[in-house]
Amino acid sequence: MEVVIQPVEVLAQLAANAIERVLQERPTPVLGLATGSSPLPIYDELARRHADRGLSFARARGFTLDEYVGLPADHPESYRSVIDRELVSRVDFAPGAVQGPDGAADDLRAACAAYEEAIAAAGGVELQILGIGTDGHIAFNEPGSSLASRTRIKTLTDQTRADNARFFDGDLEAVPRHCLTQGLGTIMSARHLVLIATGTGKAEAVHQLVEGPVSALWPATIMQHHPHATVLVDDAAASRLQLGDYFRTVYANKPAWQIP
Ligand SMILES: N[C@@H]1[C@@H](O)[C@H](O)[C@@H](COP(=O)(O)O)O[C@@H]1O
Q: Ligand 1 centre from 184 Cα, in Å?
C-alpha cells in the first residue's frame, strides 16, 4: 500500500494524473467513480483538464460504487444525480456510459446481480476512486461486511446516516436506511484502488485502514490485501498514523517514475 501525505490540491493532482493515464492508455477505459465530498477536488481537477486542454472521457465507461434504496434516480441526493452533477455533466462521457446500481428497481436483488454482470462485461474496473466513512466503510460496506462480498443490499449504520444527514438539510429521517453497494470483493477486483481522505474526522479510519489488523470491523482494511492500492491523505487525516514520518520520507525520496 502506498500512502501519500500532501495538501489536498496535490492529492487531487496525483489522482487526476493516474486517471489521465488510464484514459490515455486504455482503448476503452473503465473508471470506478465514488460519491461523497472527498473526491470532489479530483472531479474539479478533471473538469479543469477537460476544459483547458480537452482531456477526453469519450471512450470511457464509469461505474459508481453505491446508491440509496428508495430515492428516485432524479432525486438531487441520489448518487446517480450527484455523480452527474459533480463529474459527468462537466466532461464528455458518451450518453449512458456511466452507470450505477439501480436503487429504485422493483427487484433489488436482480438489480445487484445485473450490476455485477455489467461491470464484468465491461472488462472490470481499471482504476477505482474511493472515499472512506468515519467508521471505516468504503462504498457502503458498513462494519461487519463480508470481506468477500459482492454487490448487495445493505442497511446503513446510525453513524453513516447521521454523517450523511448534511446532504439532506440535516434531516436524519430523510436519509434512507438501505442502499445497494458494490461489495468489498467487487471493489477488490478493480486493478488500482485510489482512496482519498481529508480532515481529522477521518484520522482514526485512516489509521485502521493502513495500520490496523484486517477486520470486518473496519471494512477498508481489506485494502491491505490489494496489490495496487494508493491512499491519498492530508496532514489532518494522517495525524494518527504511526508510520506517518516514514510515509513522508518515502514520498520525498521517490523517483519521479514511481509517483502514482
Ligand atoms: N457511500 C459514501 C462513501 O462512498 C463515501 O466514501 C463516504 C464518505 O463521504 P465523505 O467523502 O463525504 O466524507 O460517504 C458515503 O457513505
A: 15
- Indicate the Cα dihedral angle 9, 137, 100, 36, nearest 10°: -40
Domain count for the chain, please give it: 1
Ligand 1, pocket residues at CB < 6 Å: 34-38, 65-66, 131-133, 139-140, 160, 164
What predicted TM-score, i.e. pTM, was given to this entire model? 0.96
pLDDT tens digits, one per residue of 94-130? 999 999 999 999 999 999 999 999 999 999 999 999 9
Residue 210 belongs to some domain of the structure: yes
Among the atoms of ligand 1, which is closest to the Cα of residue 201? 13
User: What ipTM does this complex have?
Assistant: 0.95
Task: Give CA separation, 242 vs 151, 208, 224, 245, 248, in Å.
Answer: 33, 11, 16, 8, 12
CATH number of the domain that 43 lies in?
A: 3.40.50.1360
The CA distance from 37 to 167, in Å, is 10
Q: Which residue has the cell 446481480?
A: 113
171 lies in some domain: yes
Ligand 1 nearest atom to the CA of residue 65, by list position: 4
With respect to residue 259, please indicate whether it lies within any of the assigned structural domains: no
Shortest-distance Cα residue to atom 8 of ligand 1: 133
Q: Which domain holds residue 58?
A: 2-254
Instruction: Tell me whether residue 44 is one of the annotated catalytic residues.
Output: no
The string over 199-233, giving b where at least 16 C-beta atoms fall within 10 Å of a residue's C-beta and e elsewhere, is beebbbbbbbbbbbebebebbbbbbeebeebbbbb
Query: What pLDDT, in 10s, does the model give residues 120-151?
Result: 999 999 999 999 999 999 999 999 999 999 99
Ligand 1 atom index nearest CA of 36: 12
The phi, psi pair for 117, rounded to 5°, reads: -65, -40
